[in-house]
Design a protein that fits this description.
The chain is of the alpha+beta class. Among the domains are: about 50 residues, no CATH class; about 90 residues. Helices cover about 15% and strands about 45% of the residues. The strands form 6 sheets. A 5-stranded antiparallel beta sheet has the order 3-4-5-6-24, with no helix packed on it. Strands 7-8-9-10 form a 4-stranded antiparallel beta sheet, with no helix packed on it. Strand 9 and strand 10 form a beta hairpin. The protein is globular, with a radius of gyration of 23 Å. The relative contact order is 0.15.
């Protein structure tokens, strides 16, 4: 009986196999033969691969560490020269309290390094990946957000913005938004409008007008490849709390002072929802928890996770679960993102403002695991899915983009 080779299978069956492979493997398969290259380059395959990657991430999420590039030779020489100019005086803390805090931080990190069980991630559903941010994005870059495998980065007060897919090593530098000469701070967000199939970047620029600042909204559309600008009077007297944003069901959310700000990526309109009246201070940015916008708020005995849900056509906050306070009142876990499969990522903090180390928190098992100790200089850590998404204007990331 003749053997059947994989290449002899119908194209539809080959496609169904390829689309379920990790994106790194799929990219390697492009070099196998021309028929496979044709299959993988097809827009329908790219769309199908994205769908499968999103579904797979629900049970096996990926945390992507974005590492800073190593210093160049000239940067090392500059650093050495600067250090040579500084006399080697012993470091002294400004206060005894600061010195005691430093000692406790060092003690807690040393204990974590020795905690073998605490670092055992063999049973974790989370996959860890790492990429070095290309030097072309520097200097002064920050991570805005990640959506469908595309990461948005900005710098210089959002005057420089990149969209980057590290899986395929391609990126696009956006045209500069209209300049505001008298503007103040800039808030920025990034997300995907599934209705118009459009990736959008939102910036809110506060322009000085007489005695106050007037919010000016700028929206970049990858479909139109241009910026649209309009006034945002509803944002007046609003102060966004942090730069982290999240997209849930086509709505971009920002944590604002006293209320949650939303921006409908399709309708391009803003809205506000007050925080739950019974809570104390905010303890997280906005997260996507199983298809609902979620935040963590302080409670009497620890923190509570709340979700914003549609109840009979009205938006309402629902308390999902609580996390008990640490026995040490100076220690807390600050959750930053829900990954899926019951896993949150976050940071263990000392006295609310001193980061100790990164953790995974399983809210179902009420179990904490340590990860990433001694990773070196990290720019950011994002929830990520590897995809083949390529936007118009994408170029190899090693290109000299100006």
């Amino acid at each position: 009986m003749a053997k059947t080779l994989f290449s002899d299978l119908p194209e539809g069956m080959i496609t169904e196999v390829l689309v379920r492979l990790p994106v790194k493997t799929v990219l390697q398969c492009k070099s196998v033969c021309k028929p496979w290259l044709s299959i993988i380059s097809n827009p329908h395959f790219i769309k199908s691969q994205l769908h499968h990657a999103i579904v797979a991430s629900q049970n096996n999420p990926t945390l992507l560490t974005l590492a800073k590039p190593p210093p160049t030779e000239s940067e090392l020489l500059s650093l050495s020269f600067a250090q040579a100019l500084v006399p080697p005086y012993p470091f002294q803390f400004a206060t005894l309290a600061a010195e005691l805090q430093h000692q406790k931080k060092r003690q807690l990190i040393d204990e974590a390094l020795l905690d073998v069980n605490g670092q055992d991630l063999s049973s974790s559903p989370v996959h860890f990946d790492r990429v070095v941010i290309p030097r072309v994005f520097y200097p002064h870059i920050q991570i805005v957000g990640s959506c469908n495998g595309v990461i948005c980065l900005s710098g210089m007060g959002a005057r420089v913005i990149y969209l980057w897919n590290p899986s395929i090593r391609q990126c696009k530098k956006l045209d500069t938004a209209p300049t505001r000469q008298t503007s103040s701070a800039v808030d920025i967000g990034f997300g995907y409008d599934s209705v118009s199939k459009d990736y959008k970047v939102l910036t809110v620029v506060y322009e000085q007008n007489a005695d106050n600042y007037v919010p000016v909204v700028q929206v970049y559309s990858t479909n139109a490849n241009c910026w649209r600008e309009f006034w945002g009077p509803i944002l007046k007297n609003s102060e966004f709390w942090g730069r982290t944003n999240i997209v849930v069901n086509g709505i971009l959310y920002f944590a604002s002072t006293g209320r949650l700000c939303s921006f409908d990526l399709n309708e391009e309109v803003f809205g506000f929802v007050p925080y739950p009246s019974s809570v104390k201070s905010k303890k997280s940015d906005v997260m996507d928890f199983k298809g609902s916008a979620a935040m963590v708020f302080e409670s009497e005995f620890g923190v509570d996770v709340w979700t914003l849900d549609d109840v009979c056509g009205e938006l309402s906050w629902t308390k999902k679960f609580s996390i008990a306070a640490d026995p040490d009142p100076e220690i807390e876990i600050r959750l930053s993102n829900y990954l899926g499969a019951g896993q949150f990522c976050g940071i263990k903090m000392l006295n609310s403002y001193i980061p100790l180390y990164k953790v995974l928190y399983d809210y179902e098992k009420k179990e904490t695991k340590i990860y990433g100790l001694g990773e070196g200089k990290i720019q950011a850590i994002v929830k990520y899915i590897g995809t083949l998404v390529r936007l118009d204007g994408f170029e190899p990331v090693d290109s000299d983009i100006n």
